[in-house]
Amino acid sequence: MTDSTPGLLHEYLRMSADNAPDKVAVVCSGERLTYREIDEKSERFASFLVGAGVRPDDRVALLLDTSVEAIVCLFGILKAGAIFLMLSPSLKAGKLCYILNDCQARTLVADTSKSAVVLKALPLCSSLQEVIWTGHTDTAAALPGRQPVKSYRFSESLSCEASGLLHRPGSRREEALATIIYTSGSTGEPKGVMCPHQAMISAARSIIHYLENSKEDVVLNALPLSFDYGLYQVLMTFMFGGTVVLEQSFIYLHRVLQRIEQERVTGFPVVPTMVAMLLRMRSLAGYDFSSLRYMTNTAAALPVEHIRKLRTIFPQVKFFSMYGLTECKRVSYLPPPELDLRPTSVGKPMKDCRVFVVDDQGRELGPGQVGELVVQGPNVMSGYWNDPDLTARTFRTDRRTGSTLLYTGDLFSRDSDGYLYFVARKDDLIKTRGERVSPREVENVLCGMEGVMEAAVVGVPDEVLGQALKAYVVAPSSLSKKAVQQHCSDNLEHFMVPKYVEIVAELPRTSSGKVDKRLLQIDSQAGGNAGQHNARES
Questions:
Q1: DSSP string, 410-433
Q2: Which residues is 31 bridged to in the sheet?
Q3: For residue 148, is the peptide bond before it cis, meaning its omega torsion is within 30 degrees of 0?
Q4: Would you tell me how many other CB atoms lie within 10 Å of the CB of residue 457?
Q5: How many angstroms separate the most distant Cα atoms in the chain?
Q6: Which of 84, 270, 336, 345 has the smallest number of Cβ neighbours within 10 A?
Q7: Quick one: 18 exposed, middle or buried, by C-beta within 10 A (0-12, 13-18, 19+)?
Q8: Closest to 310 (Cα-Cα) out of 348, 346, 268
Q9: pTM as predicted
Q10: Torsions phi, psi of 200, nearest 5?
Q11: Closest C-alpha among 230, 210, 192 to residue 83
Q12: Any bridge partners for residue 218, and if so which?
């Protein structure tokens, strides 16, 4: 990458289409589309949007499964100068309505399989002016009820000719928003992270740099596009001119692994759920992984034991442990040669990114001290849509330089060489027996026990302890709870040993594959009493 490279995300599509028009850009559900085809289809979709009245900075929401249509739409929206929102396809009507109203979305693109959800939400969405339907059925071809919401078929949008209206003033600002990514909020309502073109490009370029991506890379993405980790796999691949192979889900892991073999995949982004599923498989020797060059992990930290097992299975693969959050995309990565020396570290800051570990008064802390991680750099996003108070608390101005400081809400320490170590979310620390406990430290020990595939630790109310530790452990039912507690007792300080242990078949997940600890806490306080009772008797 050089300083002469494009300043807008969709300009990378045009650049790749000019450089290699007939190269396959996307493989998905049996379809193989070239860069030229994606560029032309997105151009026509952009013309359709402009003709329908979409203006620069209007919000256009996508309620689609992982698909070629989703890729065409997001680039078409950007070409029209608008802002895209890639929504989780599993959204229910209430949350869909909240997001559409919060960002005052003008247009919604939805698959007809989502028609029941859309039609339920629509009467309460005052800003929506048109719905564009993808899919092969006509169950939602018309919109009953509130008018003048217009209804179109996606195929209609691709019949448009390219329009000079696309290149209107104001549609090419690097500081303009490319997308709003809605994530879970502390109040229970989603919060929209505002992501400008320039910040997204800066983050993507830094990641491409340390992964050493090239046009020869084939990246397999089995993560939802509503999850920024999944979305960036597409955006980055289009930037370096490679091929992205899209899978609907990682639930059918055999199919995902077959695709690695068939498409000669070189890059495979994973999350802890995928790794846990992978390590349970007994037939990995039957697959050809010789093309695989690297694997990456983020979203949540992998237990050290899982990293060790992965490296045994894939000895030729470079494994990158990384840390990031939507508000700045990526912060750090651990170079693969450092895995043996610092297996619990998430590495050093990536190119052009600076970090500080600070106390509650904002004073920088020294090596080994735990404090909040603060991030500074061109990858820091613009704040939260329609929430100036939260933006002011999280995105603060550095009085010395005038640049933006992102207060992550994550507790970290760093060693004398500058390597970072995640401790916990500030609001995840559990105070028990007068001590503060990081759930991750207990989970790492649990995952090092023979037979344990995954573990999650939460705090539950306790009259004596204030909070007691409860461990949910994915393991064979033959594993006794006493054995789990004994293992913890042998490897942890006494106040870190879970008082309660629940052996479960699986852990609840968010749409991005993270363990949903909120549901575990609800279970502990409501339906989890039986588990607590059994733990006392074990």
A1: EEEEE-TT--EEEEEETTT-EEET
A2: 28
A3: yes
A4: 26
A5: 74
A6: 336
A7: exposed
A8: 268
A9: 0.84
A10: -65, -40
A11: 192
A12: 243
Q: What CA–CA distance (Å, rounded) separates 150 from 159?
A: 17
Check residue 266 and report its DSSP letter.
Answer: -
Q: Treating both helix axes as pointing N-terminal to C-terminal, what angle do 9-19 and 68-79 enclose, rounded to 10 degrees? A: 110
Nearest to 84 by CA among 113, 42, 51: 42
Beta bridge partners of 471: 457, 501
**Under DSSP, is residue 361 helix (H, G, I), strand (E, B) or coil?**
coil
Which three-class secondary structure state does DSSP give residue 353?
Answer: coil
Contact 176, 382 (CB under 8 A): no
Residue with tokens 């032309």: 40
Could you give the residue ranges of the DSSP H alpha helices within 177-252?
197-211, 228-240
8-state DSSP, 112: G
Using the 8-state DSSP alphabet, how is residue 336 labeled?
A: G
In the numeric block, the tokens 């735990």 are attached to: 370
Helix-helix angle 9-19:228-240, to 10 degrees: 40
Going from the first residue of the chain to its last (538 residues), give the mean pLDDT of each consecutive group of 10, the final group possibly shorter: 74 96 97 97 95 94 97 97 94 92 97 93 92 77 61 87 55 86 72 97 97 98 93 98 94 91 97 85 86 88 84 92 95 94 93 95 94 96 96 93 92 95 83 79 89 91 82 93 93 88 90 80 61 31
Under a CB-based contact definition with an 8 Å cutoff, are residues 395 and 380 in contact? Answer: yes
Neighbours of 460 (CB within 10 A): 21
Nearest alpha carbon to residue 316 among 293, 332, 344: 293
